[in-house]
Amino acid sequence: MSRRRVVVTGIGTVNPLGADTQTFWKNALNGTSGVGRITLFDTSGFGVKIGAEVPGFDPDEYMPRKVSRRLDRNSQFFWVATDQALRDAGIVYDEDDPEAERAGVVVGSGIGGIITMQETMDVLRARGPDRVSPVAITKIISNMAGGVVSIDFHLYGPNTTAVTACAASANAIGDATEIIRRGDADVMVAGGTEAGICELALSSFSQAKAISTRNDDPAAASRPFDADRDGFVMGEGAATLVLEEYDHAVAREADIYAEVLGYGMSADGYHITLPRPGGRGAARAMDHALADASLRPDEIDYINAHGTSTKANDATETAAIKTVFGDAAYTVPVSSTKSMTGHLLGGAGALESLVCVLAIRDGLVPPTINYETPDPECDLDYVPNTAREVDVDRAMTNSFGFGGHNVALVFGKP
Amino acid sequence: MERVEIESKLVDLLVEELGIERDNITMSAKFEEDLEVDSLGVVELLMALEDNFDVKIPDDEAEGITTVGEAVDIVSTKING
Q: Between 20 and 30 A from A410 (CA), which of A22, A245, B35, B77?
């Protein structure tokens, strides 16, 4: 029996470049930076003062106040992206719809409701335990993003959460694909979200020397693969893909964006933050994804890189791509969405999957912006600064997370 | 504080803090049945009352509050004696 095929029939996003897919995609193709001075809190005393925020986000524009007030910003983002994606897919389940039991959710988030965690600790220390909100915990836990969309959009099938740091939402899409493949669901909402721009996360990332300190020129701070890169820029936002079993999508005459062809993962087993030098772990994830897709490396037309703009990631990822792709590494276009959006952490894999899907649909590859000075260790075609027309039949996206989690996904023309 | 003032402040609280529709709020409306305030919401409501009216409502007294009017009563008694 042949394997059940999984296709993408709906997409949605809210991120630093736009609060909807169309705005995001236009800005990404134009090479727009979403990075600026942080406004979400006062950065006095902080060495890092820049981030990529979702500008002017007001949850009450999208959902009832009764819903928004009990959600952390990260779940609010996911709610918005999921609402868009389900509308885009033309999927609406009534409360008693038996089909809803065949529709589930996998969400990825790196650090869940960390803003609420920080705010709640302030209340606890200042005012004592009986002033702590009864919904503090439910706002903090990473799975609530998936929980709340299952409640509000009536998705009663499998529901789980990946928390593999910056690989989380790539795992979410891969795991959701497997759930459909093995027959446990016909429709899966798969995506990721993050809202980590707060004192706690920024200070710790900063102490770990992972973040760019280019405060004087925020738009140039995220510069993956460039010789003068000095760390990633914290971003925030969410992206959701509606995945659907192929025959199910065809039967309801859904528009199909792309097919999920391959999912591979591995662990570095090396260090809590640093990638294994040489990128052997990352290479194995890409190998597994290609094998799962039954494709040769030279059949990939575009790689959406993890490309964080840290010294270590970009060199290691480049080495890993060369290990897997051989000579083809030098001809396949590779670009980093994070050059524009900053790093959405647990939301990144889903947003970058969305980019692959749109690149396939439109035959356009968004650029790596701020690429000015080549680094001898990064010697591939990074689609510098200007979007490019490329006939993309198949695209790969990489996601790597603290802890040594490596994930690769392959998407193809339907 | 005049009772009417407490009423108006409480209604604002229910709308702004708990996200309840203003049109549904009457003095006889029951929190759980009519206004769909769940068990977590009851705790949030009590915290909001304590913070905004600067009163202390012990658990045993809180159990007697089922309607908006009863919430006004207890706050009024606490403030005005």
A: A22
- Is A134 touching B (CB cutoff 8 A)? yes
> SS3 of A332, please?
coil
- pLDDT tens, residue by residue, A167-185: 999 999 999 999 999 999 9
From CA A13, how far away is CA A357, in angstroms rounded? 13
pLDDT in tens, A54-102: 999 999 999 999 999 999 999 999 999 999 999 999 999 999 999 999 9
Among the CATH numbers 3.50.50.60, 3.30.360.10, 1.10.1200.10, 3.30.590.20, which is that of B3-80? Answer: 1.10.1200.10
**Is B40–A135 a contact, with Cβ atoms under 8 angstroms apart?**
yes
Question: In A, which residues are within 8 Å of B19 by CB distance?
Answer: 64-69
Put simply, whether the predicted model's pTM sits higher than 0.95 gets the answer yes
Whether residues B18 and A131 touch (CB distance < 8 A) is answered with no
Radius of gyration of chain A (CA): 20
Q: Where are the beta strands (DSSP E) in B33-73?
A: none
Pick the last residue of a domain from A251, A275, A308: A251
Q: Are residues A19 and A113 in the same domain?
A: yes
Which chain B residue has the Cα nearest residue A64? Answer: B19
**CA-based nearest distance B21→chain A, Å:** 9
Question: Do the Cβ atoms of A131 and B47 come within 8 Å?
Answer: yes
| Residue appearing with tokens 């490396």 | A297
Would you give the distance in Å from CA A357 to the centre of its chain? 13
Q: Do A69 and B17 touch (CB under 8 A)?
A: yes
ipTM of this predicted complex? Answer: 0.89
